[in-house]
Amino acid sequence: MDKFVIRGGNPLLGTIRVSGAKNSALPCMAAAILTEDEVILENIPQVRDIETERKLLTSMGAEVELGYGRAQHRTTISCRVLSEPTAKYEIVKTMRASALVLGPLVARTGIARVSMPGGCAIGARPIDLHIKGLEQMGANISYQHGYVEARAERLKGANILFDKITVTGTEDLLMAAVLAEGETVLENAAREPEVTDLAALLTAMGAQIEGAGTSTIRVQGVEKLHGARHRINPDRVEAGTYLIAGAITGGDLCVTHCNPAHLGAVIDKLKECGVRIDILGKDSIRVRSEGALKTADISTEEYPGFPTDMQAQFMALATQADGVSQVKENIFENRFMHVQELVRMGANIRIDGRVATVRGKTPLSAAAVMCSDLRASASLVLAALVADGESILDRIYNIDRGYEHIEEKLRGVGAQIKRLGNVFSDRRETSATVTV
Ligand code: EPZ
Prior knowledge:
By secondary structure, the protein is α/β, with parallel strands linked by helices. The chain has helices at about 20-30, 50-60, 90, 100-110, 130-135, 165-175, 195-205, 235-250, 265-270, 310-320, 335-345, 375-385, 395-400, 405-410, and strands at about 5, 15, 40, 65-70, 75-80, 85, 110-115, 140-145, 145-150, 160, 185, 210, 215-220, 230, 250-255, 275-280, 285-290, 300, 325-330, 350, 355-360, 370, 390-395, 415-420. The protein has a 4-stranded mixed beta sheet. Strands 2-15-17-16 form a 4-stranded mixed beta sheet, with helices on one face. The longest helix is centred in the middle third of the chain and has 13 residues, at about 235-250. The radius of gyration is 21 Å and the shape is globular. It binds ligand EPZ. Ligand EPZ binds near residues 128 and 169. Ligand EPZ binds near residues 26, 194, 308 and 374.
């Protein structure tokens, strides 16, 4: 298994380019199921989860080209033939977002079989709200052998009120609704930019959608959708991670090809910590540390609140702030997997239920640490960049799931980081891979 070796102490200086958003690309790739025509997606990140999605669609009979040529990170998907409308356990167990094929599959083919996602590192991660919405749209749901099966001649529009805000639940049912008969209203819908990005693609394919990005999305179902070409949004979590990398190392970093408008809560918190942030035009942000970091409390919320996907990274920063910072995780029940590893590096963090109390500033010392899930892994990278000595990060396939070429990007701005083992390869199966 690959490892990272990171020697801390270098301030990050220079420019770092953000890739396309994994959490936009995954639903957009699934949306190709809704049409017989080709769907072309650009700005696709070269990360493990995209490769997993390619395998998933291919296993269902789709043709998926995935090219990371110098010019474009692009995928061309043709779901003309969907011979096997099933998301198999072997794939779903490695990526929970496989559930995103449920809605489009039953909308396009009338049947979908998806392995129920097991729990994962950060929580139970059920898909009960996805299934409840499909039932409201007239799908017959059955369960056998660990799979959920949804069948419907043609889904019918419905008024769906989500008990909880769910990002992929909103995306799944949005994709189900665009081919349903009549109108569907999604209430208490997720407002994440990834939902808006998916809606933009679906609209380009001929769907009729109003309100994407708000809590109420209204869809008029159509008979058929056609192909489209769409450019995936920049990854706001990758961008936020690099902003914190610049701050925690006392550097001066320009994060480019991002969308500052998607990072409001993160930027506000960094400013509260005394970090200097300058928005440069429409797609770049400059981050500089200006003296000692101050404390700030965070409480994760659905967009546009402080994102749960930035909680672990912020906690690493909080270990370097003078004083006490409270970190409350409201979205997932087990998203503090990074805490014990940070404590092993010298951090002073106490967990009480959903609240972690961080007492800083504590000097961090390099250690051998274990990556458990995607964002916890990012947190350990950030800590290692500022720790005294050489850290070894194990199970970094978790990082490869959502951060494109992270070691090259960090080395390009002065980090001392190298990968031990094979270069990131999607051909290696790891039984230890957890879903997120
Ligand atoms: C998406 O996961 C993201 N993944 C996650 O990013 C992100 O952390 C999460 O949204 C929250 O922002 C993708 O977009 C592929 P949810 P998702 O459904 O959709 C509960 C990363 O690091 N829930 O919004 O699976 C659920 O248990 C990943 O990139 C139900 O109870 O999250 C959680 O407590 C990690 N029933 C809450 O809702 C359901 O049917 C929010 O989950 C669905 C969700």
